[in-house]
Amino acid sequence: MFGYRSEQKLCLGTKGFAAPEQYQGRLTAASDVYGFGKTMWALMGEGKWRQFLSSPSWCYLLFQCCRKDEKRRIPDMETLERKLKALSEKGLRVSGKQLFLVAGLFTLLLFTVSGIFLAGKETKKKQTLPLSQALTQVTQNYYDTSFWEKDQKEQKEVCEKTERELQKLLKAYPKKEEQNRILMLLALNAELAEEDAHARQYYQQLLLFDPDCTEGYGEYGRYLWRKGEKEKSLECFFHYESAESQGERQQEKTPGLLKWEGEMKEYQKERAQ
After folding, report:
1. What is the pLDDT of residues 50-88, one digit of tens each?
2. Which of 111, 167, 245, 263 is the most exposed place for a label (fewest CB within 10 A)?
3. What is the pLDDT of residue 251?
4. What is the domain partition of the chain in residue ranges?
5. What is the Cα–Cα distance from 92 to 187, expressed in whole angstroms?
6. Which are the contacts of 33, defined by CB distance < 8 A and separation ≥ 6?
7. Which keywords, in A-to-Z order, does the entry hold (predicted)?
């Protein structure tokens, strides 16, 4: 999830957050897991020890993420997602703000590596970067703990820079799946910047060019639900169900989508009463 420049055989990363193999010029799926663990460690601040005492399982999970030997580390973000889900079902408790930060950061990480590149495969010279690696270079701003310590104006400047870089990727990666992934990241970035109009615009652009994108309806519906626009979110849910019934999903549903599905079903029951 840090910048990778294969043409120079260099792998750059923030000191303390880059995995050991990155300093050897290799970027793998396990490298993102290491960065995630180190970032979560830093975000917990001085209260980390109280959290570890109250949840030893969370402590052990981070330990597995941060192993220096990549062969002993959690291998990829998909595996980490399953472990996090299992941990949450056992009763892990975090505050609302922490939950948003963890969920948003984790989603970006998962989008970056899910089904896009093979672990341990290095990019050859002059070869176009896989989208996964191009995205890690753009979204690395989020993984620097200083981002969350900046004031609102500084954070917005970071988001504006990220938006410009993601827009460049839209031109460089024309495949439909790639476009969808970039547009969803643009929408999330706009939400972080509190640019409501831009977030809606990116979701609508995605669905205009790919009206059968199940994930697009789901993410837009979740966004509307967070904004308190329940009827519009429900409308998205109907499109989401229709698109899902007509096509085959290419990846498992995220915990966020599953939660939103449950909320939509409960909301329909409320409306029927």
Report:
1. 555 556 677 778 888 888 888 889 988 888 888 887 776
2. 245
3. 57
4. 1-121, 211-273
5. 28
6. 65, 73, 74, 75, 76, 77, 80
7. Coiled coil, Kinase, Membrane, Serine/threonine-protein kinase, Transferase, Transmembrane, Transmembrane helix
